[in-house]
Specification:
The complex is a heterotrimer of chains A (475), B (503) and C (507). With 475 residues, chain A is mainly α. Chain A has 20 helices and two strands. Chain A has helices at residues 16-32, 34-38, 62-85, 91-110, 114-132, 138-169, 186-203, 213-219, 222-248, 250-256, 259-278, 283-303, 307-338, 349-352, 354-368, 374-389, 392-418, 423-426, 437-455, 463-471; strands spanning 44-51, 54-59. A two-stranded antiparallel sheet of chain A has the order 1-2. The longest helix of chain A has 32 residues, at 138-169. The radius of gyration of chain A is 21 Å and the shape is globular. The N and C termini of chain A lie far apart (61 Å). Chain B contains 21 helices and three strands. Chain B has helices at 7-25, 29-49, 51-55, 79-102, 108-129, 134-152, 158-189, 216-233, 242-245, 251-260, 262-278, 280-286, 288-309, 313-334, 337-368, 379-382, 384-398, 404-418, 422-448, 460-478, 486-502; strands spanning 2-4, 59-66, 72-77. Chain B has a three-stranded mixed sheet. Chain C has 507 residues and is an all-alpha fold. Chain C has a domain at 292-507. Chain C has a two-stranded antiparallel ribbon with strand order 1-2. Classes of the chains: A mainly alpha (475), B mainly alpha (503), C mainly alpha (507). Chains in contact: A-B, B-C. Chain B binds chain C through residues 65-69, 71, 73, 135, 138-139, 142, 149-150, 153, 156, 161, 164-165, 168-169, 172-173, 175-177, 179-180, 183-184, 186-187, 208-211, and chain C through 404-406, 410-411, 414-415, 417-418, 421-426, 429-430, 432-434, 436-437, 440-441, 444, 448, 451-454, 485-489, 492-493.
Chain lengths: 475, 503, 507
């Protein structure tokens, strides 16, 4: 087969490889922190004092290490993928922002106190605007505008909450001991909880604050969609974990009973978003709703306040990141190689794009929770945790979510493999995977990771073990 | 520790001498530039030389003349005044460079007048910052009004003259109120000197309205008169009308109005009223600041809403100033140490961010003649440096961390919580969002709309100050814990103010 | 050395006859002027200047003595008190005398070149004669201690003033002079009537004596009539609202130097008259002087506001200045009538300071007219570029008249405002501030026209500074507007005891 004519080769900018190397080094650095984290160490570094008593401070605790160990490889994959995906338009800006957001994401993970978390989180969110808007089509612009509105409102809520905490207890470092105590009064505690949860909830796609997610994902370039779903949305969930377990603490939250309100909300999110996902024809939109649904899992798990559940939530952050990245990478390949955005147009594409669809299928199965893939592990832990906390009703939600995941992902697989292609439509197009190595390799790597994370889940240094270490101080 | 030192007078004198030299010999381009730049740098040197001593707790005093007994012109350098003087003299340097570039094309006569009166305005600002008493403050406050007028009507078009007239009516009206307040304070307290915690608080005074000691109503009158008087220049709603009109002036003048001198002078006057004339203890008993706070809230929200509606870039900037300067008033009226820090600090935060934006607006106008926001499509690609600086300033106003504006927002909210007034915290958050609502579309247009037309290169005389001021915005947001940098000065100033209360 | 100087000064000041010299010098000089004109006409201006200078020098030992001894009297001819003529030098007399002494030489120096153009050649001797007569009359009025002489000197001042308005020979000026004469005549009649009544009631003309005798009288109707006649008479002379309408035209149409004297000094004759009336009736219980004060304070406030209001809408520069005089008379009267120590102090200071400032302004305005022949702001636009020094002086004067600290105009208004508070009448403090604001408005109009508009008239474009003999007095006076403001503590300390004494006498 000849080189397809309708796929122009993208000239290299020249800096891709150095950037990949740099990211590789960062990954190595982050992984090198794992042994220390397993040993329970949490070194602190003060960066800068922003205002009296308000320090920018890094604290590399197991929770943060877990998060960075998961997300940094995604960056490398996205970088490699970008080499094949991103055209020359605005390319410099794209890479600049992408590389700038990596240290900011690390900052979010390693933030040693609420202020630092806020600062890096805000900067990361604002900077991401440039990636969402990257293609500068009217849809992208509209989606980006919606995104920035959500982010700024959410950021303002967080700011309020952070200042409240700072006012009440000072600039405390995250630690096992929660910052707040019941003596502060119901009013203050409610205000803090509502502002912080709403603020991080916007990012974590907590229903009903999820409005930006289905628009931003399809509009963004595929590698960034992957990061958006895998990392940025997860920072919101990560923030919620910090808030619930290190700012409030499990005891206090139980006493206050706020979680009785959050859990149903998250549960509704899991199911409703999954139903919505099934109704989408646009593939990336469908995946975006899936993200909302899966993040609902995480929020629900956090809100149920169980040790195993939190382990499950952390695990699911990692696993979901990898799986969703695979799916978005595949969506990008479909778009670039076949010009296909819609599920209904995918009929028979598996014949032309076999590797892509194989990866997609693997990730989809993982997402549904088929053993021994990554998704199964986290859902298993979540299920066990739910039973352990004695709230079996929510187990139904988890299972319902999985069923619905099958309902919105398997049809894609089915159509791609088994529905007869409408030959007239694309027989003249040279749809092929050849020459798509830059995109295909990270996709396959991510898919492989889905398998590894499932099969070798209990290996030391992989998310499960790290999550257990990270979570143990809170109980 | 009070030390007699002529340096405050020297700082003032340098600006005055600069004005005289420019008027006398300024028709020659080189001399004009030499005098202006030389004076700006020299004055900055003099002012900053006061800083180490002042931080160590020294207060420099210089009494010039006393005309009626007990009423005179004198200078006193305390940290709050020094902070204001530093902000203004730093900005003077940048504005001078910018103005040299901006005014190049103008007639010599116009340039002489511009640079001369500009120097006079800056002299007046130093006078305000270093005023030892309310009368001195008032004199320089009025001098500032008078010397700004020629700058506002610089273009001598009917619109400019009309704006100038409006400016004068407002500011002279405000000046009249201040004068009335001056008389009332002198009568009630028997002195006008700052440097004690509350002129009016020290002992029981006879009320200015006759009959018995100073009561709440009489104090309220004094407070209202002074705050409204200074509030005109601080562009507090509903006294802000002059500010958008004055936008007809050339850009360096707008910078002067919004960042270097005029609006700040009003805000600084209110700070003096609160911290020096009434004093924290007295105000804490009186509850007047509650009214001031709500006035500030009206300006903060109202100014932003009006800014949103503007289609002209400079007018949007003007209304944004209405909103931003009231942060200072809100913070000052909260009456707690944290809020005091930010009340002082925001003088710098607002100044540098706003001057950056004005410089950029001016550079755009100079390079392409565009003044309306909907003409700015794609300009970010044509003027990347300038628009990057503009974006930094805009993000600062929105309150993005690591920029100056975040510090302001953080501290005001914290101050509001300390003052048990959470609703002001909410106001700050809403205001930050409103800033996003009207600044981000501008940035968006500049970067994401297709390029239209051509833009002449603004040149480094314009670009340099723009970048430097934007760099300052970042600097202010990140250097809170470095000694002798602005934040430390502001917090030390606040500490001194509150230490006096504690004693 | 210093001690020797002090001794010689006090010896000089101790000479008893300075007071009479003070009057005789200008009056005598005035009488001799026509004769000198006949002999050597070119010397006349110098002669007048010499007389004015000597008169000014005469004031110095008097001030010295006043400062060291307090008020003192001089009885020409050695007649005992109620019967003879008495001259008395107190602080208020000193104020007016000092103003005359300070302003007469610059005005006359200015006149040398100015009058040569503004006054028909044949009338020049009259011009100088009248001017000297007027100044002499003012001095006499200030220091006389008896009612009849008060009237006589007032007439000297008034008559010479009417003539001075008309001396330029312009038809407008003659009409204005006639109007002025008419109002002046009414005022003189009223004052004469009052003097007659008082003489009939008390049998004395010496003011101190009359003041002592009045409280014993029981004829309220007559007393009221006398007081009212004096009040209205002097109000007319002082051009207090609502009796002001003769002033603007008269002052505006007179030659520049004359306008300066009229606005700066002559209207103050009315003020001094009001002060003396006060002193006369202070002890009379039948007449409630507080009521009198209440009326005057309102009239003063009305003058302030109305004068400023009219001034704002004038186009003619000199008319603007003339209306401003009404405003400032209002300040002074208001300050006096508020009758609190600080207000009276402020009024006294302003009496002197306004004389200085208004003279500066009128001379500077005269210089503009001298060069360009133009009078309205519209015509004079852009003049600041061609006559920078003169316009700077005018601007400084304008600043002073607004009352910008630290100029001379500030101090008086400051104390009047404080005094209003002291009297428990804050409304009038508000009036002071409001008046200053209105003044700022017309000041801005002047500055705006002079500096920020493009010149249109050819006369403006080609104008140049006036000769030094005219410019020097203008600049000197302008600097004094600033300097006297800066040195205000001296007159304040000088006047404080006098005000205290006056208030003691009243209560």
């Amino acid at each position: 087969m000849t080189q397809p004519q309708n796929i122009p080769k993208i000239p290299a900018a020249g800096y891709e490889l150095p950037l990949m190397l740099l990211t590789g080094l960062i990954i190595a650095g982050c992984w090198a922190l794992i042994p220390g984290a397993l040993a329970g160490r949490a070194p602190e570094f003060s960066l800068l004092q922003l205002a009296p008593g308000a320090w920018l401070l890094l604290r590399i605790d197991p929770l943060g290490v877990l998060f960075t160990a998961t997300i940094t490889p995604l960056w490398l994959l996205a970088l490699i993928y970008s080499r094949g995906y991103i055209g020359t338009a605005h390319r410099d800006r794209y890479y600049l922002v992408l590389m700038l957001s990596l240290p900011l994401a690390l900052g979010v993970a390693w933030a040693g106190n609420l202020l630092t978390l806020l600062v890096f989180y805000e900067l990361l969110s604002v900077l991401s605007y440039l990636l969402v808007v990257h293609e500068e089509t009217p849809t992208a612009k509209a989606a980006a505008a919606k995104y920035i509105v959500y982010v700024l409102v959410g950021g303002s809520c967080i700011l309020l909450g952070v200042v409240l905490v700072f006012y009440l207890v000072g600039g405390q470092t995250f630690a096992a001991e929660p910052m707040l105590h019941a003596g502060l009064g119901w009013g203050y505690l409610t205000a803090i909880f509502v502002t912080l949860l709403a603020g991080f909830g916007v990012k974590a796609a907590l229903v009903p604050l999820h409005g930006w997610v289905p628009d931003a994902h399809p509009a963004a370039p595929a590698p960034f969609s992957a990061l958006l779903s895998g990392v940025l949305v997860a920072t919101g969930a990560f923030g919620i974990i910090r808030v619930t377990h290190q700012v409030f603490g499990v005891e206090l939250l139980r006493e206050l009973g706020f979680m009785h309100w959050v859990s149903p909300l998250a549960a509704i999110g899991v199911l409703a978003a999954a139903v919505a996902a099934a109704r989408q024809d646009d593939l990336k939109r469908r995946l975006a709703y899936s993200t909302i649904s899966q993040l609902g899992y995480i929020t629900l798990a956090i809100s149920l306040l169980g040790q195993e559940l939190l382990v499950g939530a952390l695990l699911h952050i990692s696993n979901h990141a990898m799986m969703k990245a695979t799916l978005f990478f595949c969506a990008g390949l479909l778009l670039r190689r076949a010009g296909v955005r819609r599920v209904s147009e995918m009929a028979g594409l598996a014949r032309r794009l076999p590797w892509t669809m194989a990866a997609f299928t693997l990730a989809a199965l993982g997402m549904i929770g088929v053993p021994p893939l990554a998704g199964f592990i986290s859902k298993w832990v979540l299920g066990m945790g739910t039973l352990a906390t004695g709230q079996p009703l929510y187990l139904l939600v988890f299972m319902g979510g999985s069923l619905l995941a099958a309902a919105y992902l398997l049809p894609v697989v089915y159509i791609a493999y088994f529905r007869e292609p409408v030959e007239e439509e694309w027989k003249n197009k040279a749809i092929t995977e050849r020459g798509a190595g830059w995109m295909l390799i990270p996709t396959l790597l991510a898919a492989a990771a889905t398998v590894i994370l499932g099969v070798a889940a209990t290996a030391p240094g992989l998310p499960l073990s790290l999550a257990r270490v990270a979570v143990s101080p809170f109980w | 520790m009070e030390i007699v030192d002529p340096r405050p007078l020297l700082a003032l004198g340098i600006s005055l001498a600069c004005a005289l030299l420019v008027f006398a010999t300024g028709r020659h381009y080189g001399r004009r530039v030499l005098w202006s730049m030389g004076a700006a740098l020299l004055k900055f040197g003099v002012v900053i030389s006061l800083l180490p001593g002042a931080m160590a707790g020294e207060v420099y005093l210089f009494r010039l003349v006393e005309f009626p007994p007990g009423v005179g012109i004198g200078f006193r350098v305390d940290l709050m005044g020094l902070f204001f003087a530093l902000v203004s003299s730093t900005l003077w340097i940048f504005t001078t460079i910018y103005a040299i570039g901006y005014m190049r094309g103008e007639a010599d006569r116009a340039q002489v007048r511009f640079f001369g009166f500009f120097a006079l305005c800056v002299a007046a600002t130093v006078g305000i910052a270093f005023a030892e008493n309310l009368l001195t403050l008032f004199i320089f406050y009025e001098l500032l009004t008078v010397c700004t007028y020629p700058l506002v009507i610089h273009k001598e078009t009917p619109a400019a003259l009309k704006a100038g007239r409006k400016y004068l009516i407002y500011t002279l009206g405000g000046g009249g109120l201040v004068l009335l307040g001056l008389v009332l304070v002198q009568h009630a307290a028997g002195t006008l000197s700052f440097g004690q915690t509350g002129l009016l608080a020290a002992g029981a005074h006879d009320g200015p309205l006759g009959g018995g000691p100073l009561g709440g109503g009489q104090l309220g009158l004094i407070f209202a008169v002074l705050v409204l008087g200074f509030g005109v220049k601080a562009a507090v709603m509903p006294l802000h009308g002059w500010l958008p009109s004055a936008m007809v002036a050339p850009t360096p003048v707008s910078a002067l109005l919004h960042a270097v001198a005029v609006v700040k002078a009003g805000a600084f006057g209110i700070l003096r009223v609160i911290y020096d004339i009434f004093g924290l203890e007295l105000l804490a008993q009186l509850n007047f600041t509650q009214a001031l706070a709500w006035l500030a809230v009206v300006s903060i929200i109202g100014g932003s809403l009006l800014a949103w509606r503007q289609v002209n870039l400079k007018r949007r900037l003007a209304y944004s100033t209405v909103s931003q300067v009231s942060y200072i008033l809100l913070a000052a009226s909260l009456l707690n140490p944290t809020a005091t820090v930010v009340a002082i600090m925001h003088l710098a935060n607002q100044g540098f961010a706003k001057i950056t934006m004005f410089f950029v607006a001016g550079a755009i106008e100079q390079g392409s003649g565009r003044t309306e926001i909907n003409q700015l499509d794609g300009i970010g690609r044509q003027m990347p440096w300038s628009l990057a600086a503009f974006t930094v300033a805009a993000l600062s106003f929105i309150g993005v961390p690591l920029l100056a504006g975040f510090l302001t927002k953080w501290l005001v909210i914290l101050g509001a919580l300390e003052g048990e007034a959470w609703w002001f915290a909410a106001v700050m958050v809403i205001s930050g969002l409103l800033n996003a609502v009207y600044w981000l579309p501008v940035v968006y247009r500049a970067y994401f709309r297709p390029v239209t037309g051509v833009v002449a290169d603004p040149g480094w005389l314009l670009r340099g100050p723009i970048i430097a001021c934007a760099a300052f915005v970042v600097l202010l947001g990140t250097t809170a814990h470095f000694h002798l940098l602005p934040f430390s000065v502001a917090s030390e100033a606040a500490r001194v103010i509150w230490a006096e209360v504690a004693n | 050395m210093a001690a020797a100087l002090t001794v010689s000064w006090s010896a000089l000041a101790a000479w008893p006859h300075w007071l009479i010299v003070l009057i005789l010098l200008p009056l005598g000089g005035a009488v001799l002027t026509p004769a000198l004109y006949a002999l050597q006409r070119r010397l006349v201006p110098w002669w007048a200047l010499l007389v004015a200078g000597l008169t000014a020098l005469t004031v110095l030992p008097l001030l010295w003595r006043l400062a060291h001894e307090g008020p003192f009297s001089y009885l020409p001819g050695g007649w005992a008190r109620p019967y003879g003529v008495e001259l008395r030098f107190d602080e208020f007399a000193a104020l007016l005398a000092a103003a005359v002494a300070l302003l007469a030489p610059p005005v006359l120096l200015f006149s040398r070149r100015y009058a040569a153009r503004a006054v028909p050649a044949g009338r020049l001797p009259f011009y100088y004669t009248l001017l000297l007569l007027n100044l002499g009359g003012l001095l006499g009025l200030a220091i006389t201690a008896d009612l009849f002489n008060l009237f006589v000197f007032l007439e000297v001042v008034s008559l010479s003033a009417y003539a001075l308005v008309a001396v330029g020979g312009r038809p407008v000026a003659e009409l204005a002079a006639f109007k002025y004469l008419l109002m002046g005549a009414i005022s003189s009649l009223l004052i004469l009537l009052a003097v007659g009544i008082l003489f009939a009631l008390t049998g004395s003309l010496n003011m101190a004596d009359v003041a002592q005798r009045l409280p014993a009288l029981a004829t309220p109707a007559a007393l009221t009539l006398a007081a009212a006649a004096l009040l209205v008479g002097f109000m007319l002379k002082a051009a207090l609202f609502p009796l002001h309408n003769w002033l603007p035209e008269a002052h505006a149409s007179a030659p520049g130097a004359v306008s300066a004297v009229l606005s700066g000094l002559v209207v103050k004759a009315g003020i001094i008259g009001l002060v003396r009336t006060y002193q006369l009736f202070a002890g009379v219980e039948l007449l409630d002087t507080a009521n009198l004060g209440a009326i005057l304070v309102w009239l003063g406030a009305a003058s302030v506001v109305m004068g400023s209001f009219f001034a704002v809408f004038q186009h003619d520069l000199k008319l603007m200045l003339a209306y401003s005089t009404i405003t400032n008379i209002g300040y002074i009267v208001m300050g006096w009538a508020l009758a609190s120590p600080q207000a009276m102090l402020g009024a006294s200071l302003h009496l002197f300071n306004h004389a200085l400032i208004k003279t500066t302004l009128f001379l500077a305005a005269g210089a503009l007219i001298y060069r360009t022949g133009l009078r309205t702001l519209e015509e004079l636009r852009g003049i600041g570029r061609t006559m920078p020094l003169n316009c700077a002086a005018l601007a400084l004067g304008a600043l002073a008249i607004v009352g910008v600290p630290p100029t001379a105009g500030f101090v008086g208004k400051w104390f009047i405002a404080l005094g209003a508070l002291q009297a428990g009448r804050p409304f009038f403090a508000l009036v002071v501030v409001f008046g200053a604001l209105l003044a700022a408005v017309y000041y801005v109009r002047i500055i705006n026209a002079f500096y920020f508009r493009e010149p249109e008239q050819k006369a403006v474009v080609t104008a140049r500074e006036v000769p030094w003999s005219m410019l020097a007095p203008v600049l000197l006076l302008a600097l004094l507007c600033l300097g006297i403001g800066l040195l205000a503590r001296l007159p304040v300390e000088f006047l404080e005891p006098a005000v205290a004494r006056l208030l003691d006498g009243r209560s």
